[in-house]
Amino acid sequence: MPDNLADLQREVAELGDRVAALRSTHSMYPDDSAETAEAALTELGFAQELLQDCGQRLAAAESAAAPRRSNGDDERAVLRAVFGQLSVPAVLLDHEGYIRRINAIGADRLGSSPGYLSGKPFATFVDLRRRAAMRSRLAAVLRSGESASFDSRLAQRGWAEDVHMTLTRLDVPTEAAPPVLAVLSPPLAGGEDEGPAPLEPEVEDQVVVLAARRLDVLTRMTRLLLASAGPGGAGRPLALDDAAALLADSYADWVIVDVCDLPGSAEQARRAVVSGPSGENGPRELVGALDPLDSEIPREVLANGNSVLSQLIEDESALGRADGAPVLSALGAGSLMCVPLKGSRGVRGALTLIRRSNRGSFRLADLGLIEEIGEHIGLALPPRAAG
């Protein structure tokens, strides 16, 4: 519980953010309601504790004597030794959810080295649909000291895995803010199962196959652009929805096109096209209703004309929020890139491509291809862009 007014204000603000994220997750993914509802009940319990106890705790004086340094050092040495000998994936998190230490088995599970993973937000490696629940669990463990055990899903860089996660607060006397130990194990038998996330075939990582895919996309887009500029299409505006559908079908899961009706007028940008998987009209309408200037990444690309590549999405709100929840969570995003649509008189718009977490991340070679396509689209746009 908070000990002063500043801590109380911070706790209330964080509680509000987590509740908004859980509410939106529940409305968008009703099939995952059991896990979301359980996390929401945990947050409700915390809110009740705040109302009942914050006055008494704020009035209480601090009266804890610091333990001897040698005892703390001994406990930390034991902790390091036990941590290194664990035969299951284990991650030591600080009170903000960043990875402080990870054992070799855990690093292998997350697909990288312990040195690279240290300092990274652990939530980055949790599927976006499960992040809100995991963060609420972590906050509850830090507050109450009671361990939490629940099913979750790891997802990043083209792989996904269902796991059973156990969070335990470690009260170390020399630590001002106690760390949390996260242990990963196989999902419990008989638990809620949404099925394995479909992964791209391993062959997709081969350089030759990836190069062939890029060439195919460029060829198909060139044909589309020529159709609007050639003898049979002279004077016909470029169909942005056709261009977006082509990219969504062959290169990404979601494609967003924002345009400026007047060249260089980024402050008047509008969302022209949102293309994605068939049957997912809810997320499509959600994204289509947003103002591009309320999204950090498209806004920056429209303003300065520089591309953005996010191979690992750490900031879930980079594409804006809807009903208090990050849009990228609703789309199940794993990586994204955004490039300018450059015409002869400046930036005409922004092209955003999103891949889900069960697909391989966008790479620099992908960015180069989409930048070229973006320039061609920008040049093909009429004086007043059509949606």
From TrEMBL:
Residues 77-143 form the PAS domain. CDD domains: PAS (cd00130). Pfam families: GAF, PAS_4. It comes from the Bacteria. InterPro entries: GAF (IPR003018), GAF-like_dom_sf (IPR029016), PAS (IPR000014), PAS-like_dom_sf (IPR035965), PAS_4 (IPR013656). This is PAS domain-containing protein. It comes from Streptomonospora salina.
